[in-house]
Design brief:
The complex is a heterodimer. By secondary structure, chain A is mostly helical. Chain A folds into two domains: 151 residues, no CATH class; 69 residues, no CATH class. Chain A is built from ten helices and two strands; from the N terminus they run H-H-H-H-H-E-E-H-H-H-H-H. Chain A has a two-stranded antiparallel ribbon. In chain A, strand 1 and strand 2 form a beta hairpin. In chain A, helix 3 packs antiparallel against helix 10. The N terminus of chain A is likely disordered. Helix content of chain B is 66%, strand content 3%. The N terminus and C terminus of chain B are likely disordered. The two termini of chain B are 32 Å apart. In chain B, helix 3 crosses helix 6. Chain B is globular. In chain B, a hairpin with a 2-residue loop joins strand 1 and strand 2. Chain B is mainly alpha-helical. A two-stranded antiparallel sheet of chain B has the order 1-2. Classes of the chains: A mainly alpha, B mainly alpha. At the A-B interface, helix 2, helix 5, helix 6, helix 7 and helix 8 of A face helix 1, helix 2, strand 1, helix 4 and helix 7 of B.
Chain lengths: 257, 239
């Protein structure tokens, strides 16, 4: 039952200006910042330093300590394996370093992935560290994400803990009856449990739907549930300042490259 | 045994290519929304939400491969078998969006690529295999098991090859190996991963088909491709 997705593990409660900022402004700013970062030419090393300073400033405003960020940033390691493989796999001129023959293009490409993935991840962590899951969905809703999608996401997040708890109990029951699988060909018990989990999830969905119908559900969330805390013009401009600086850095990097 | 190409991070694929795939993903998800709503009507949010929670929970469960090595499911083929391609693609897309937004898994700028590979290409490949094999194979539990195995294995391989294609278009760094060589390695590695995914999907689907065959979308009706609404179940549960 490992897996790094414990539902609320990335949120860090607080009352900093970042926490109080409206979620739609934070979401839009994070996406814009990430786009600016990934659009920067990889040779513009100074630009990535600039982005790192920006991330540091936002973390300071959000009162998120660097250690907290660093520990959670470690989840990216499996995803950037490619960055460490590229110097060996890439074509083109090569350099010798400590007895290894590395591709220059691959080194630059690896640096490119490592820098951009890390900065993007840090921006995401600052967003989820200061925004509750419910607010993230509200933010998506206000950014005109189709309502059925945000509704599905809402139901998913609401029932995720229920299903995870259910699967945990099924696993304990399985182990208590002497199931101790070690090899792939012993997964029958695991997979049968997964089937049972689907049946329970689907039937729970049917019961939830019937209960909602009984309370007047027509396929639309009642208006006014998320009417408070809409971003003001001041909040929008405050949130926009970070991606604006990032965009300026990116444009400067593209021009000088 | 996490798929090597799954959950692309920021910066792996160049921005214009990533943006193109994001636009493609948005367009296809909108189509899936329309088809899903036609099939489920006002049940879409609770039903698809619970199925998405199931896919998410299934991805969190590790199963043993060898002592010390464990893997986990992607689940696109499993969802396509159980709830049909449109709702399945929708559920996996929502799972990926939530993973990127709430759990910082996979880059925000690569979300379009990740949705394209795992939710759209993977599910579409799985469903094509399902439609073809269910016509050819006998309509028995064994036939269903073979279909489920093949569909999920092929869906994992095709999703990985979609990443190879994307990397070739917008990867930025030229590799020493040729396209054919990279394709071969990626297909081989992911075929191995797909065996695990296939075994689990097959047993899971057969378990569901034994208890509630009416809930297995792939077994519904004479034409597997139809999107008729399932009859709502008003009664009991197996809990």
């Amino acid at each position: 039952m490992a897996g790094g997705h414990d539902a609320h593990v990335l949120y860090r409660p607080g009352s900093s200006p970042m926490h109080r900022l409206a979620p739609e402004a934070k979401l839009a700013a994070t996406v814009a910042f990430t786009v600016a970062v990934v659009s920067t030419p990889r040779e513009a090393f100074w630009a990535f330093g600039g982005y790192a300073v920006l991330v540091g400033l936002v973390a300071a405003v959000a009162r998120i300590p660097p250690g907290w960020l660093a520990r959670r940033a470690a989840i990216e390691l499996p995803f950037v394996a490619l960055a460490f493989a590229l110097p060996f796999l890439a074509a083109g001129p090569r350099v010798d370093w400590a007895g290894l023959s590395l591709s220059v293009d691959g080194l630059l490409g690896g640096w490119n992935i490592l820098a951009k993935a890390t900065l993007g991840l840090l921006a995401s962590l600052l967003l989820v560290g200061t925004t509750t899951v419910r607010d993230l969905i509200v933010g998506l809703d206000r950014l005109r994400c189709p309502a059925p999608l945000t509704q599905i996401a809402t139901f998913m997040l609401r029932y995720l803990d229920v299903l995870v708890g259910e699967s945990r109990r099924m696993r304990v029951a399985r182990l208590a009856r002497g199931d101790d699988p070690r090899f792939l060909w012993q997964v029958r018990g695991f997979a049968a449990g997964l089937g049972a989990l689907f049946l329970r999830a689907y039937e729970r969905g049917e019961r939830v739907w019937l209960a909602m119908r009984a309370r007047g559900w027509t396929g639309r969330m009642p208006a006014g549930l998320s009417a408070t805390g809409v971003a003001t013009a001041r909040q929008w401009s405050a949130a926009a300042s970070v991606p604006a600086v990032a965009a300026a850095v990116a444009i400067a990097a593209v021009v000088t490259a | 045994m996490d798929g090597l190409a799954l959950h692309i991070a920021d910066g792996v694929i160049e921005t214009p290519v990533a943006a193109g795939f994001a636009a493609l993903a948005v367009a296809v998800v909108v189509v899936c929304l329309a088809r899903g709503r036609r099939a489920l009507d006002d049940r879409l949010a609770p039903m698809a939400g619970l199925v998405a929670a199931f896919v998410f929970a299934a991805q969190m469960l590790n199963f043993p491969v060898l002592p010390g090595v464990s893997g986990h499911l992607v689940g696109g083929a499993l969802a396509a078998l159980l709830v049909g391609p449109w709702v399945a693609a929708l559920c996996v897309s929502v799972v990926l969006v939530v993973q990127a937004l709430v759990f910082a898994d996979g880059g925000l700028s690569a979300l379009g690529l990740n949705i394209t590979n795992m939710a759209l290409v993977g599910t579409a490949a799985a469903y094509l295999v399902i439609v073809v094999l269910l016509r050819v194979l006998p309509r028995t539990l064994a036939g269903l098991a073979v279909t489920a195995f093949a569909a999920s294995m092929i869906s994992v391989v095709v999703a990985a090859l979609a990443f190879v294609g994307e990397y070739w278009v917008g990867g930025g760094v030229e590799l020493r190996a040729g396209l054919g060589e990279v394709t071969g390695v990626m297909a081989g590695v992911h075929a191995l991963i797909g065996i695990g995914e296939g075994l689990i999907t097959a047993v899971t689907v057969v378990t569901v088909a034994r208890v509630r065959p009416d809930l297995v979308y792939a077994l519904r009706g004479a034409r597997p491709a139809s999107t008729t609404a399932p009859a709502p179940v008003t009664g009991g549960s197996v809990e």
